[in-house]
Structure formats: structure tokens, C-alpha cells
Amino acid sequence: MDNQSGQGYTLEDEPYYLPLADEVDIFMAAWAQRLPVLLKGPTGCGKTRFVEYMAHKIFRGDGADEQRLQIENPLLTVSCHEDLSATDLVGRFLLQGQETVWQDGPLTRSVRQGSICYLDEIVEARKDSTVLIHSLTDHRRILPIEKKADILEAHKNFLLVMSYNPGYQNILKDLKPSTRQRFISIEFDYPNEEEETAVIQHESGVNEDCARSLALVAIKVRNLRHHGFDEGVSTRLLVYAGQLIKSGISPSRACDVAISTAVTDDKDVQQAIAEIVKTIIPSD
Amino acid sequence: MVKILDSGKKVTERDNNASTEFLLLMREQPDVSPEFLAQLSTVCERMLNSGWYGESTCNLYVTVCSELIDHKSLWLLIADQCDDFAANNRITLEYLRTVQAFSLNSVTSDRVVSLISSMNELLTGLKAEAPASIINAIKTASTVFSETGTPRFWVAATHRFSSESTDIFRQFLSLSLPYLTLFDKNRYSLQDGDYWQWLTTVCNVNANVAIAFMEAASCFGPELPAEPLFIDFLTTIAADEEGAVQLIELAGDNWDPDSLQKSLPFVIRLAEIDSESLKYLLILTKEKSLDLPALEPWLNQGLCAASDNKLTGRAWFSLESLNSKNAFKLCRGSVHLEDCNQLLQLICEGLGGRVFSVAPVEMGSWVLDNFSESIHLPMEVSFRNNYEENFSLYRLMILYQVAFWESGIADFINRTDKESIASFVTHVENRQLALDLVNIIVPVYIERFMLKRYPGIRNDLLLWQRYYRTDRSWTAAVSGIDSLLEDSLYLDSVEFRDTEQRNRIIISGLSGTDLSITDSPNTDPPGSELSIADRSKKIPENEKKSERLYSEFLLAEISTDGTKLVEEDFLSILSALKSAYLAFENEGSAGSIGMIFYRGKLAIDLALLSVRMELVKEEVDKVKSDDDASGVSDLLNPENISVEELRQGDLDDAMGQFLTDVEGKLSEDEFDDESLKKKAEALREKFSIEHGTPKKQAKIFTYDEWDYQIRDYRKDWCILHEQVLESKSEQFVAETLSQHSDLLRQIRKQLQMLKPELHRKVRGLSDGEDIHHDDAIEAMVDLRSGVSPNENIYVQRLKAERDVSTLFLLDMSASTDESLELFKAQRNPDANLPAGEAVPAISKDKKEPKETDHIDYLMDAYDSSLKPSKPKETYRIIDIERQSVVLMAEALEELGDSYAISGFSGYGRDRVDYFQCKAFEERYDATVKGRIEAVSPRQSTRMGPSIRHGIQQLLKTESKVKAMIIISDGYPQDFDYGKDRTSKVYGIEDTARALQEAKREGIHTFCLTVDPAGHDYLKDMCPDNQYMIIQDIEELPKELSRVYSALTS
Question: Which end of chain A has fewer CB atoms at under 10 Å, N or C?
Fold first, then answer.
């Protein structure tokens, strides 16, 4: 994952990912048919990592052909937000010096070169952007660029992947059925205690006991998720905690900054988490 | 007649053998001079002639003299004294008797001399007193003198007190001896004199106080009066007699001398500042058994408060003010369930994985819930002296109960199969023993599970195990069960693994010495008589048994699969139980062993019952299948049914069943504050007739109130009842709309202007979705002409939102019943007067109900609201208020803003009424319209709590813009809104404070009033002058909409 060339994400090394079920097989099968994939799950449970892993597998792995190996950035990620409009995805005209230049958006680039375009948290984006997806995700696989009055056909290696967090649903922000039903959905969730322990151990470098107690803390804290942090604590945060511990911060303090103050601002909830941590991790 | 003297002087005409003999005897004495003898005989003669008791006096004198044969010099002194009191023989007799007693009882002659001279001294000072007093004094003196080494101090005090009233003098005398017993000369190197001198000092200020002190003296202990500060204290407070007497009594009752001594400087300072406060403090000390020296920070803060303002000080020391309560809790380090209830619930939910109810328990026994419905926690923990450690008990208890279920032990307890605890208990002889053992052994396993799965709890567990271990008295003769219980509290402690070390610990405990640890059991540790090996032979059998059990079972590892215990562990619990039973079964019943509080008691009643039912069923089945009918008749034969079958503990179980059921119910319901409930009940009874009784149960909230005099909040001072009004008809609303259609249109137009467009284009951005042509052309032109172009030429569509919530608070006080006519009539003649000069206050005061009148008033109000709607001229203020609100509601529905309508009134701080017409999330439907109809004048106007409740409601909406519009007709008023009923200041200050709180929370407030005298107080009450006085009341609706627009745009 070398960034120094300034060319972006090149995915040279295989990212670590612990499969929890058959998601790898399903994705590979989807890829074989170039079916768009929707990843559902709470934040920090491994969706993005999974996509990286699959991108690496497809574009750098054993089955990768010449064409794929050559693509510099096999994975283009777009983090969607409220003000993300179609122009942001597709591209726009910019004034550069004396000229008016067309700039490709990330989606267009991906479609053109044949890589995976990953739209993270697609529900957040504005409605006009989700409509773009429709034409890309049915059998046509075309991307209309209005401003240029152009219709772009997708490269054969192009794949559209989206992520979606069901916890943020409300009436205003939800995927229309017509959009949803263009994707196959893989559900993600936080791993169970054993698996989470392994992940934490690998990612942060702490020993097994420590990882295990962090995993147990996570389970207990997730019981409190209805008190304002609907997701519970993500695996990512646990890894952060582990990393802090590895650098020498005391476990209770690491949990403090990585878990309780990170997930909630409610003083009571923070203290409750601190108390729970006290029962699990012996204080020094 | 007997001629006594040779000189021919006759002594007396009367017959007196005793004195004659005596004098004759004296004549024989060599050291008796004739002059002396003459004096003696004169004395005797005088005595004989002194009155009715002359003879006995003389006899007694003579006897005394013979006893004092070595102190002839005293004889005359004594005689002189008798002379002084010659008028009253009784005194003389008493005196002489006392002297006689002295001479008989004293060990040394010096002593006799000193006693007599003290007595004489005493009497010299008392000459002017009444005879009764003198006699009393003499009697007291005789006892006192025998107790004290240097009586003259007491004598001096007596003289002092004798100059007070007879009553006081008498009291002094009667209290002297008890007071004297305070001085234990062996312990304190004080002079007796000091005590009396101090007493005299106090007496100089005020004799009654001195007496009160003497009475209470025994409570103060002997050291205290020795403390010079204490006397300063007494003299300071003695200035106010009544207060001082009260204080002394209180202090005597409530203060243990040690802590009093330590806190004396503080007490004195407080007494100097305000003795009332000191009284409150003393009462509080008794109530809560305070350890004053430990509460120093709180005391000092209170001192500052009191020296600043006496009222604040009093509120401080009676724990009424908010700051005081907080500081107090901080000092004590005690943890209260009610304060951290929310936090504890969160912890329970987090650890347990589901929502639990927290069931408060008093100290003592509580039953561990087998069905995971609630978690039991104590109401208060103050065993340790700091907050952290006290709180850790909560943590421990929550985890213990969670572990009980999580480990699967709860299910195991409920099992009824052959390999279950219930079945074991049912089949043994000594059921009580078995139950006790269950309560010892099972917790051990729970704790081991806890340690394994939640290693962080280790320190807490050790702390509290140690606490409960040392809490029990560890005597040499310990029953077997107790020792096993003791063992269970050493869980996993390194000390216990080594049995040798354990023996040493036992021995050192028994002998009270601290033995050093040596490895060899045969060498004698220094200072001991027996070797350890010998001693261990002496350890009672019980300890050995429990030790064996302990090492066999209780120290064994449990194997869990990570999240709960496995079958193997349950079986080992059972076998531990069985072995323990076998080991101790011959002990007989253990009685009730101590309960370790944090473990609670395990309840296996249900399981036992099921097991027994099974057995009974089996029996019945057996009988059924038995062809021989004799089986049945056997069963039915009364001879075969014997009471012996009733096992020990059977009845208990039956009762236990009930209790656990009831307990479970009770603990859930009792969660509300007890006193709140009682108050609410009392009030409900008092108000037997309710105006428009709401059908639903009112929700109760407590709010603090700001007391400007003590400059602090009174915590939970007001109780607010939130109720929903009963919906009546929509008639009022319909009428209003039809009558005021014009007004409605105007309002609608006004509010519609507030409605924003959904998206608006913003240009001149440095980035955007599109290029704005005009800006781009400008830029190009600039470029061509050599000027640097503006690069912000993009345009973006941004969403504009309107996120407003408004609460309309209507004053529903009695004064709104005022009709418009009357109001105008009153107002108009005074229209030219400057503000502040009254609209005659009649209307308001008249309507304000006195406590006794309220029921009549209610009846009137009730009747009046039943009347059909009146023609326009007789509209009341409340009607205008309602109309305005109706019109606003209609208009707001179109605008789409969120709003709520509520009314407030109430009577007294214990019953503030908050009537909800429309909640924020409710729709403006027929029910709501009907409720507006039900808005009617009630009672007082206590604005503060209503505003605070309104704040809470607004905060819940989480809107960007929050506004509160209060529509009222006068100033805040209630019969106990401030101690002085006629003063408005308290109410205004509290309301002002509440509005400030609203402002702090980001809520815009606005007060609309029709009271022309409003300027006086509204200026101070409303922050930023956010108020308006409506001149013409019919303008209210229009003004309201204007205000609304201003507030929310």
C-alpha cells in the first residue's frame, strides 16, 4: 500500500482480512459475472478492508491477467456525503488558465479504465447521484455524461461496489427499492469473540490475553449501543486500542480514549464504559 | 442541780448528764486550763438554753468534742459556728452531725481538721441564706467533701451560686455530686478547682446556663471541660440563655466527647456567628451519626456561608441547600443509589446484555433473583471513607449478579433433576444445614467464574472479601460452618494456598500476637510458648475439617468454555456440597450463619417445591398403580399420616414462597422516592374535589427552586404534576375560528413569510457543481484586462432548513378568570398613571385563595366554567389567551413548525400543576382541540418550576431553534413562593433565574403579559428585555404572531 509515488492506492501488498463466512466466495462469484455488490453492516466491521482484500485478490492475485496487473489503482473509493452530487462523481468543467477543461470524476475514471469503484455510505449522497448508478448496474453498463453529451461504456473489468449502513436509516435517507434491487447484498457484522480476538491480535500486535479482554469489552459495550451510539464499538476502535497498548499506554487509559470517549459524549455512558473496562481489565 | 465548777458558778438549772459528765471529765484533763473549761461551760450553757432542741444539741456537741479529743482547739470554733446559727437548732444539729461523721470517717486527723475548716468556711458564706438551703448545703457538703480532696473550690462555687435564686442554688447543690464524678483524679492531672472555677465563670454570665451545663456534663465526658476552649464556648453562647440551654442539651445528646473535642474550635466559631446554625448542625449530627472531624471541608464551607449570610448558613447545616448537599456527599465519600442511578443502570445493561431494573435493598438480607429480572443494590454505601472504594461495592455486586446468570449457575439452581441441588436438599435430614452450605459453597464458584472471565474485578473482590472477613468477630471457639464461611472469603488468595501459612494465620489470630513466619514447624517462634505443631494440634476440629474441604474442592480449578460453566463444574459443586454436609452433619443446626452482604441469599424455594411435587406425584402414581386397595386405605388412614413427615424448613419454604413473590413486586414499585410518594398521597387526599380531574395518572417531577436569600438552589423543592387535560368539545375552537377569521388570515400571512424554499442557489463559491455564467464572464473580462480574476465563480445548491420548536405556556391562574370588562374598567381610569402605581390590586388578591378558601374557590371556578360560552363583552382573560393560542395553532400547522401548548398553575410547592394540551409530537387533532377547551382558571402562578419543566420538554426536541412564549396576566405568585407571603421578590427572582437557565440552554424566551404594571418586574425578570405588555388585550393574537416570527427567524 505504497503511497509515495503520489499515484494513489496501488495495493501492492495483500491486506489482512479474516473471512467470517463465505463472503469471499460470493464476491468472487459476483465478480465472475460482474454483478454489482452491496455491502451492508455497521461502521468499522471490515467492509472496506474486505473490498481491498478482494481488489488485491482480483487485480494482483494469482488469477490476475496482464491487463489487470497493469492497472495502477485497482480500487477507487468515494466516501459519500450529503452534498455529493452527480458532478462530483462523473466530472465537471474547470477553468484552467485560458481553457475550459473537462475533469473526470472517480466513477468515470473507474468505468473507463476498468477497476473497482467503491462508493462508501451511498445513502448519504444526494438523490441525483444515486440515479447515475441505475444505468451502470443493469445489463447496459453505460454511464451517461450529460455535460459532454457522451455515453461511456464500461470497461469489462469495471465493478461497482457500494456500502450501506442500515443503522442510519430514516425516511429521508434510504435506498429506493429500484436502487437496492440492482445489487447483491452481503451482510457484515462484528465478529464473534474468538474471531475478534484474532483480528485484534493481528492488527495491533498485542498478545492473545490482551486481545481477548478487548474483545470482551467490546461485547459488553455493544450492549449499550441504544444509548446514543447505535453501532456499538467498531472493531477498528478495538484495534486502535490495541495499538495504543502496544505503544505502552496502560490498557484502561487506552480503552478510555479509544472506546469510551470515542463512541459517546454522554458522561454517564462514558463512565459506565469505564466501569465495565475496570471489571475486565485489571488496573495496574 | 449539779455543781460543776469549783468557782461556784452554776451551770444550769436543768438536768444534763452528758455535758456534766463531759465537763467533769475535762476537769481531770491535765492540758485543760480553767479558762478553757470556763469557756466550755459557757458554751454548754448557751446551748442548753438555745431552744427546744437545746439539750440534744448540747449532747451532740459534747459527743463530738469527745471524739475530737485531740483537737481541742477546734471545739471552740465549732461552738462559734453553732452560735451563728443559734436561732435555728436544726441547722446546728445538722452541722454537728456532719462534723461527727467527719471525725468518724476520716483516716487522718489532718483530714478531719481540713474538713471541718472547710465546712466552717462554707457556712460562713451562707449565713444569709434560708435555713432549708443551709441544711441542704451542709448535707451536700458532707458527701462532696468525702469525694474531693480539696473542698474549698466547691465551697467557693457554692458561695457564688448561693447568691442566685433559691431554685438555682438548690439545683446546684443537687447536681454537685454527679458533676464531681466527672473528675477522675487518677487519669487527669487537673486540679479539681479548675472545674468549679469554670463553672463559676459561666455562672457569672448566666446561672441557668451553668446549671444546664452541670446537668449535661456527664455527656461531655471528663476531658472536655478541661479544654479551655470549651469554657470559652460556654461563655460565648451563655449570652443567649435560651439558645445556650438548648445547645447544651443538644450537644450533650449528640456529640461524643472525642469528636466534640476535635471539632471544638469550629464549634466555637460557628456559635459566635450564628447559634441557630449550630443547632441545626447538632440535630443533623445525631440524625446521621456524623463523624465531624472527617467532614472538615464541608464544615468550613458552611462557616463561610454562615458568616456571609445567616440564612444561607442555616440552610447549609440543615442540608437543605444544593451546594451543601453536594459538598456533604463529596466529603463523606459515600455513594447514593439515587445519585448514580442512571450510571448504574447503564453498567447493568452493559455487563448483563439486557435492560435490568435496579432493585434497591436496605442493608441486611436480600435474595438473589433466579430469573434475571432485576439487580439488587444497596441504597447507600459508606463503609469505606472514600468514594472510589464505596463505589466499587456497586461494581462488585452488579458483576456478581450478572456472573450468577451468565455462568449458568442460576439455571443450575433451578434444576430439579436427580443431580440437582434441590433434590439433594430435599433428601437430607438437616435441611437448614444444607441450605446454609448452599449459601457458602455456591458463591465460591460464582466468584471463581467472575475472576476467570472478568479479571479486572480481582482487586474489588479482594477488598470486600477482606472487609467482610475482618468485620466478623474472630473468636477462638468458632463453629464449623462459620469457619467454612470464613474460608470462602479467602478465595484465590495466595495466603490461603499454603495450609501451613494458613495455620499460622489462625494461630496468630487466636493468640493475638503477630508471629513471624518460619519454615520449620518445630522451632519455637520468639515469644511463644508452644511450637506451631503443638498449636496446630490445638486447632479446633472444625477448622481442620473446613481446611480439608477447602483444599479438596474449593481450591480446585473450574473449567469453563470461556463464557459459562460446564456440566463438570456443576457436578463438582454438588459433590462439594455433599462432602461438606457429611463433614458437618453432626454439628446440629448452625443456627443462622452470618450473611455476606454482597452475596445475598440464594433462593431455591421454587426448585424445592417442584421437587417435592414430583415426589408427591410419584407417591400418588404408586398408589394408583397399586392394585391392592389397601394401599389407598393405608394412605387415608389417619394413623399413617404423621406430622413427622414435615421436614425442618418446610414451613419456612411455604412462607418463603410468598415472601419472594412479594419482595419481587415491592422492590420494583418502591423505586420512587419514598417521601415524594407520601406527599403526593397526602395531597391527593387533601384535594378531595378536583377541577376537571384528569383521568390519567399524573407524572411527577421534582425541580429545584432558587432562593435569592441564600443565593443557592433548594434541591427538589417543588413537585410538579404533569397531567394531560381531559378533552372536551371542539366548540370553543370552532367558535374562535369563525369569529376571528380575519385575524386568522392576517396571522397566516405573516407566518407564511417565514417559510423558506427548500433549496437555494448560492453563488460565488470557490467550488461548486456548476459555473455561474455571469461570474465567469466577469472573471474572463478581468483576466483579459490584466486584473487578477475572482476565482469564486462556482454555484452550488444548498439546502435551507427550518428547524423550530416552540412551547406556548399559558398562565392558568385564578386571576385569569377576570372578565375583560372588569379588567378594562379597572385599567382605564388609571391609564395615565405611571407604571408601578397600581391597578388596584383587589382583583388579584381577592382571587388568590387562602388555604381555607380553596375548596369554595374551586367550586366557583368549576361552576363558572360550566356556563355556556359568553358573548364577546364578557370574555375573560383566559378566553383571550386560549383564542390566541388557537389562532396560532392553525397558522403554525401550515407553516409546519413544531409546537406544543401547555398551561400551568398549582397550589404550593408540593403541587405545581402542569397541564399538557398538545405535546410536540402530537398532531393538532380533535383531541387536542378539545383540550384547549378545557383550559380554565385554576389557582396560583408558580412560574419557576413550570418554566423549568418547559425547558426539559424543549430540550428533548433537539431542534436548532427553540423558543418558549409565556402568556400571563400578572406576576408569579403562590402562597409559599418565598417565606414572606406578601413579598413578590422571591417569586420574581426564581422566575428570573429559570428564564436565565432557559437562555443558557439556548432557548429563546418571551413573556407576553396583559398586566399594565408589568414593567416593574418584567424588566428584571426577563433576560434581554424579552417581554411585551399588551395594551389592548384584543391585540394579543396579533402580537403573538409577530413575536413568534421575530423569535424564530
Answer: C
Name the grid cell of A141: 453498463
CATH number of residue A23's parent domain: 3.40.50.300
Domain stop point among A125, A154, A187: A187
The yes/no answer to whether this complex scores an ipTM above 0.85 is no
Question: Between the CA of residue B851 and those of B537, B718, B937, B972, what are the distances in Å?
Answer: 80, 18, 17, 18
Q: What is the pLDDT of residues B972-1023, one digit of tens each?
A: 888 888 777 777 888 888 999 999 999 988 898 888 887 777 788 888 888 8
Regions of chain B short of the pLDDT cut 50: 1-12, 186-190, 473-477, 494-497, 508-538, 589-592, 631, 640-672, 688-695, 829-853, 864, 867-872
Nearest to B395 among A220, A268, A279 (CB): A279
Contact residues of A toward B, CB < 8 A: 83, 85-88, 92-93, 95, 98, 193, 213, 216, 220-221, 223-224, 227, 268-269, 271-273, 275-283
Min Cα separation A7/chain B (Å) = 23
* Cut 0.95: pTM above it: no
Domain count, chain A: 2
Residue A6: its pLDDT value, please? 44
Name residue B801's amino acid. E
Domain presence at residue A163: yes
Three-state helix/strand/coil letters over B241-261: HHHHHHHHHHHHHHCCHHHHH
For cell 421575530, what's the residue? Answer: B1046
> Both A199 and A231 in a single domain?
yes
A278 and B343 within 8 Å at the Cβ level: the answer is: no
CA distance B596 to B443: 10
Are the Cβ atoms of A269 and B776 closer than 8 angstroms?
Answer: no
Cβ of A282 within 8 Å of Cβ of B346? The answer is no
The residue of B339, B341, B347 whose CB has the most chain A CBs within 10 angstroms, and thus the best one to mutate to test that interface, is B347
Domain termination residue (choose one: A162, A187, A212):
A187
Query: Looking at the domain assignment, is residue A2 inside a domain?
Result: no
Q: Are residues A51 and A158 in the same domain?
A: yes
Residues A104 and A21 in one domain: yes
Contact between B346 and A227 using a beta-carbon 8 Å cutoff: yes
User: Is residue A208 located within the same domain as residue A141?
Assistant: no
Q: Is residue A94 part of a domain?
A: yes
Res A185: pLDDT: 92
B992 SS3 class: helix
User: B74 with B113: CB under 8 angstroms?
Assistant: yes
Q: Do A213 and A252 lie in a common domain?
A: yes
β-pairing, A159-164 vs A116-120, is parallel
- A218–chain B nearest CA distance, Å: 10
Per-position b or e across B540-565, b if 16+ CB within 10 A of its CB: eebbbbbbebbeebbbeebebeeebb
| Smallest Cα distance from B355 to chain A, Å | 9
Q: For residues A25, A31, A37 and A43, what is the CA-based torsion angle, rounded to 10 degrees?
A: 60
Residues A109 and A177 in one domain: yes
Dist. CA A207–CA B634, nearest whole Å: 71
Portion of chain A with pLDDT greater than 90, in percent: 23
Q: Are residues A43 and A161 in the same domain?
A: yes
Which stretches within B554-604 are classed as H helix? Answer: 567-584
Instruction: Give yes or no for a contact between A90 and A102, defined as CB atoms under 8 angstroms apart.
Output: no
pLDDT at B510: 44
What domain range is A266 assigned to? Answer: 193-280
| A1 assigned to some structural domain | no
**Chain A interface, mutation test: which of B338, B339, B340, B343, most A Cβ atoms within 10 Å?**
B343
Q: Is residue B576 within 8 Å of residue B558, measured between CB atoms? A: no
Residues A112 and A248 in one domain: no
Cross-chain Cβ contact B456/A279 below 8 Å: yes
